[in-house]
Amino acid sequence: MGKNKKNFERETNVSTKVSADKAKTKVNGGVFVYTGAISAGELAKTLNIPLGEVIKFLFMQGKMVTINTILDDELIGLVCLEFGYDFQKKHIVAAENFEEVEIHDDPSKLKPRAPVVTIMGHVDHGKTTLIDAIRNSNLVAGEVGGISQEIGAYQKEINGQKITFIDTPGHEAFTAMRSRGASVTDIVILVVAADDGVMPQTIEAIDHAKSAGVPIIVAINKMDKPGADPERVKNELMQHDLIAEDYGGDVICVEISAKQKTNISALLETVLLVAEMKDLKANPDRYALGTVLEAKLDRNEGPKATLLIQNGTLKEGDYLVVGSSYGKARRMTNEFKKVLKEASPSTPVSVIGLAEVPEAGDRFMAFAEESEARQIAMKRKLLKEAKEKNKSSAASLEDLYAMANSDDVQTINIIIKADSTGSAEAVKTSLEKLTTDKIKINVVRATSGAITESDILLASASKAIVYGFNVRPDAKTRAKAEEEKIEIRLHNIIYALIEELQAAMKGMLKKELVEKVTGQAEIRKLFKVSKIGTIGGCMVTDGVIKANSLVRVIRSGVVVFEGKLASLQREKDQAKEVKAGFECGMLIENYNDIKEGDIIEGYEMVEGE
Ligand code: GDP
Exposed site from 265, 334, 341, 430, fewest CB < 10 Å? Predict the structure, then answer.
């Protein structure tokens, strides 16, 4: 039994226990709530209207429907409006995707909340000085000035109303949050030095605030300086569509001196004014959700995070899912290190009790039951791992040695692509025989044909090495492999392949000559020249083809010939090399059997790493 439950029933944000009833359509206070397509019969039944009436109405709209016709959103809307209902489509979002959950608060439960402010501006224009001036100003009698820097956000009270300031100045923090999908700021204070005017980072800050749709208040700073010229600042701002009030616009500019602490309360009153216009509200009567502002590992207290409560109330003892781990709000403190039993919307709190250190920008959500938080965190962790697994590097030959020296039995996954099914099977059998009591060679795919992107995807998912036996990957597949960090090994002699794998397992991978592909070209046209042979009219599609390089002819992903170029021509002249995007003529030494569509791959032998 949750201890908070009896005396304080809060609304939950998401639930792992989506009851059958919840997922269904229903009428809620005159609003028809549904989750997806629904039949005419069901709709009539839920709205308590005779089916005939619904059918008749839709018929009048030119739609022939029967009891079983599935209605789309448009028809559902039409019927609802005709019969006096409002309607709302609910997207069912899995609880673990809580970032995507749309919270619909009952308007009667919404209460005003403090605005959350970020201070931005060009370097040296006085952001830090302003933050300190606000922090240390004793705006309310009895309030302690000179707050410790313990927590990266703080609240200030003016005229009985609170303002939350996020401490990290500059737009890096702001953008970092936004790039992670978190939006915490309600108002931006743009600091512009009166003696310096609009500078590059001022413009960047304007762009960030605008793209986030956050209103800007301009603090024209350093008004104490002799060169202060606020009119110039306003003129320059105008070029960036920020029109000051006295120029007929709606941007409020406040002239201040952060250093001398003049006009700071006027600036804060402006913040309150803008906040009032924004009508910022939240529902304190639900479990908390919000964003991690900063986090660290405290040597004594463990993971410690500053959380900004964006909706709901966080209470001591609540279970939290943050990022992909969960924990309990064991202890909450404010910027004065004062212990809080609960934190309402727009309050920044330092929380200990989390299992892991989250990242700034991570979202968090509070839950009533530990089991629920645990379950959701677990699912989120799995999701995260799956995502990372797809990104992380797969196995490499170098890893094999480490595996052989570890105490556990390890499995090395291998994908084999060969020029025929027979050779694929032969390679498979030979490699599987290499299995020792420490390393199990597991062939996850052995087929004939070129190495394709699908092989790379499988390799990435199964952490496999790809072996090509007489086959090649094309440039696109090669690029994909590089992106997914998949190792592709290419051989044309089965013993060489076996030896390489054995050597790797023994940790004896030698620095050998390895081949490096320089580029590829495609044969577009054939020119048969008597006494010379067949010249391939090619287009270099990737990299570069060099006159003295080794080449192989690839047809449908299979190597049909390996050798050297006899000549490389660009327009009518001999060329040393031809780059991607250019046409050329190629004659291959001792090979005239080229065909249109063949790929000529140029390569060199270089010393391996
Ligand atoms: P930030 O890079 O935007 O954080 O700028 P700082 O707050 O570090 O300020 C840069 C310099 O400008 C410091 O030397 C401050 O003392 C000075 N400064 C900041 N505000 C004022 C002001 O209102 N008047 C004067 N004269 N100097 C200021």
Answer: 341
